[in-house]
Amino acid sequence: MNNSQVLNTILIVVGAGILIYTLTGEDISPYFKIIGLVIIMLGLYRATNFWVATKDDHEEDAENK
Q: Where is the chain membrane-spanning (predicted)?
């Protein structure tokens, strides 16, 4: 697995963890929800950019065989 994919996955999981924490607790600052959403969106943005950049890699592999 590529290091970039690992980082994207970690960002998504950490952001989701923060959001779940804010849903279960009381008197938690709304800024934690915002931070959680921003982290999730950053991870998803990076992941989709990676997927778009590598979507045709399987075609190049098939041509080389």
A: 6-24, 31-48
Token readout for 2 is: 């590529």
- Looking up tokens 């590598």 gives 54
- What's the CA angle centered on 59, arms 57 and 62, to 5 degrees? 115
How much is the pTM? 0.77
Distances (CA, A) of 19 to 15, 22, 24, 50: 6, 5, 9, 24
Tens of pLDDT, residue by residue over 26-63, are 889 999 999 999 999 999 999 999 888 887 766 666 66
